[in-house]
């Protein structure tokens, strides 16, 4: 297992040529992982399984990595394990050492030069592991942060940043934010096209929860190679679960969880179909 796998690092070019994207899904426990894997298995599509620092701390790094890897293998799904929003060099290093295929180093709130410095250091380290590195340039509001503030990615800066750091993938700010939206934002797709034309790294869309299907598809056609999905997964799982446990005396959790797992499967299946334009 694992040895015949195409490195994520080598996948990006191909995706850019075919105007295809990978869905990158955050999992939080066994049940959300199960829901995601089932969707990937049914659709026969590859998937990126992402972990944030909180999820790693919740499950334990080797445990989180192992269950993701065994789930991919057991269900015969092509996939990669990725650190989402790595906030330090040390965390990225631990994940690379644990065998992650890819890490994100997010120094987007630091100055341009600080961001270059730390991202470049992670790229250098990741080379030894043949792992892909994602960084972020621009302001994509995190949960609880001001979504009114803007800091869209400038194409010229993106070009310079990619050249100076040698990163494989870049998260760009074109109007999305993390979490749900009060109203769907209008994405700056012209800016996306400009960044795509000036750079060669894979472009990543964070904050895709709540972006309509046709806009997501258009973003892929215009150069997005990785779409991150987190909030909607947590939301559908917990909403379904709350409905299941209210007034329910069942203590066999293996009978309680399955509909919540299925709700994640349906959601992820839908997004996988959106990327391929099977639904609009
Ligand atoms: Zn994100």
- In sequence order, what are the helices and strands, one letter per element? HEHEHHEHEHEHEHEHEHHH
Number of spatially distinct domains: 1
N-to-C span: 36 Å
- Largest beta sheet: strand ordering: 1-2-3-4-5-6-7-8
The general outline is globular
Helix content: 40-55%
Structure keywords:
single chain; 280 residues; alpha/beta; TIM Barrel; 12 helices; 8 strands; binds zinc ion
Task: Write a concise synopsis of the structure shown.
The protein has helices at residues 8-18, 30-43, 53-59, 61-74, 89-98, 112-127, 155-165, 189-198, 213-221, 231-245, 253-256, 258-275; strands spanning 22-26, 47-51, 79-86, 102-105, 132-137, 169-172, 202-205, 224-229. It is of the alpha/beta class and 280 residues long. The structure holds zinc ion.
Provide the fold topology.
Layout lengths: L7 H11 L3 E5 L3 H14 L3 E5 L1 H7 L1 H14 L4 E8 L2 H10 L3 E4 L6 H16 L4 E6 L17 H11 L3 E4 L16 H10 L3 E4 L7 H9 L2 E6 L1 H15 L7 H4 L1 H18 L5
Parallel strand pairs: 1-2, 1-8, 2-3, 3-4, 4-5, 5-6, 6-7, 7-8
Describe the structure.
This protein is an alpha/beta fold and 280 residues long. The protein has a single domain (8-275), classed as Aldolase class I (TIM Barrel, Alpha-Beta Barrel), CATH 3.20.20. The chain contains 12 helices and 8 strands. The chain has helices spanning 8-18, 30-43, 53-59, 61-74, 89-98, 112-127, 155-165, 189-198, 213-221, 231-245, 253-256, 258-275, and strands at 22-26, 47-51, 79-86, 102-105, 132-137, 169-172, 202-205, 224-229. The chain has an 8-stranded parallel beta barrel with strand order 1-2-3-4-5-6-7-8, surrounded by 10 helices. Strand 4, helix 6 (112-127) and strand 5 (132-137) form a beta-alpha-beta unit. Bound molecules: zinc ion. The site of zinc ion has 4 residues, from loops.
